[in-house]
Amino acid sequence: MDRSRVLTLKNLRLLFGGREGRKPSDAGRLDAFLADPALVRSLREEEQHRKRLPLILLSLVLGLLLGAGGVLLALHPWRPAATVSRTGVTFAEEMARTLASQGQAYIRAKEIDKALSHSRLATELAPNLVDAWDALARSLFYAGQTAEGEEAARRCLRINPAYSRGYHILGDFSFYTGDWKQAEAYWKKAPDARRGLARLLLLENRFEEATPLVRRLVRETPDEPYARIMREALQLGRLTPDLRRKLAPDFVASRNPETAQGWRLFYARRYEEAAATFSRAVSRDPRDGSAIIGHGWSLLKTGAPREAQSAFEQALATWPTSYSALNGLAWSRKAQGQEEGALTIWHEVVEELPRTDQVEIPDCLKGLGMVYYERGDYVRANHYLARSLLINPSDKETATLLQSTLAKLAPS
């Protein structure tokens, strides 16, 4: 991770003035801030990126660490957190909400390191803001830090016991760790968790309990993918293997501290150490799906696609709808020259499975676009690369490939 581009309280206060001593002028603050070569280089890179990608200027600018938050700060001088706006909301809370929102967007783009930096800073700026802890809980969870993520979700409930989304999040985390009894208990406390609860009940063949929940979901959101799947299950009176697979957990989590350490190393790009850590975790608990998948991704990053493929196939034998394992398997096959097999998996993930907002989706779309580009099918390449970039505009490789695709499609 490039530390020069991570938002912290320290570098924000350097720019906008601290609370101690004489405050510099606005011009002086900017001069001091822009004297940092790393930051100047970062800003220039982002400017070039925007010029290359006019088609996404109106989309969410997810890729800019100095994006919406930086614009907001530039428009408001740094003030102590106690300063209150006309609406009664402190500036720190306004900034924290912006950062939390960006953190959630980075999660959707699988930019986990950025999601963590934004959401952590949000909790520092506004320690009693539920939105900030909500964003941090999900960032930690997707970073493989399940126990810490659960603690952040509980913090939401300590701040506001009526925050039902906190129970929803905790239920999700328990479901993905395989603790379905606990997931059911949490989801029953969250009125907006009907889909998850109905899904769990059907997977446990508790059709009578699931029926009223499914019927309500079908009435409220008839076109929602999970609602359609569950409606079909009710009509049949059973789960076919295909329906069961589509309702099965699409994410695999673990509360194992060693697995959490493996993911910390992975997101720090220390892939060889991560591979060794995940290997130890699997040897101690062969049922730890998160460690198996993490081992596969670490092997893939270290240039061992055949071994990575074996790990992903092992995970899919138990968790057949793990988007991470499916995506990893596709990239493993592509790395071995098995493009057709990779395409089959990626098409299944983005076109047949129900989760259209899963964090692996932009990477799967990128894979599809890359293969079609290499085959000279620039129309399809453009379709998938553009979709990927709209979800994750900060992916420079996708941006460059899309630019090349558009150039090849332009009339000569």
Written description of the protein model:
The protein has 412 residues and is mainly alpha-helical. 69% of the residues lie in helices and 0% in strands. It contains 23 helices and no strands. The protein has helices spanning 9-16, 26-34, 37-52, 68-75, 91-108, 112-125, 130-142, 146-159, 164-177, 180-187, 194-203, 207-220, 225-236, 241-247, 257-267, 271-284, 289-301, 305-318, 323-335, 339-351, 361-374, 378-391, 396-409. The longest helix has 18 residues, at 91-108. The two termini are 41 Å apart. The model is unreliable at 1-5, 14-40 and 49-83 (pLDDT under 50).
Mean pLDDT: 85
Please compute the radius of gyration using only Cα atoms: 23 Å
Question: What is the distance, rounded to the nearest whole angstrom, between the alpha carbons of the first and last residues?
Answer: 41 Å
The secondary-structure element order is: HHHHHHHHHHHHHHHHHHHHHHH
Helical segment count = 23
Task: Outline the biggest β-sheet.
Answer: none
Q: In total, how many beta strands?
A: 0
What labels describe this entry?
412 residues, mainly alpha, disordered N terminus
Detail the topology: elements first, then pairings.
Layout: H1 9-16, H2 26-34, H3 37-52, H4 68-75, H5 91-108, H6 112-125, H7 130-142, H8 146-159, H9 164-177, H10 180-187, H11 194-203, H12 207-220, H13 225-236, H14 241-247, H15 257-267, H16 271-284, H17 289-301, H18 305-318, H19 323-335, H20 339-351, H21 361-374, H22 378-391, H23 396-409
Short description:
The chain has 23 helices and no strands.
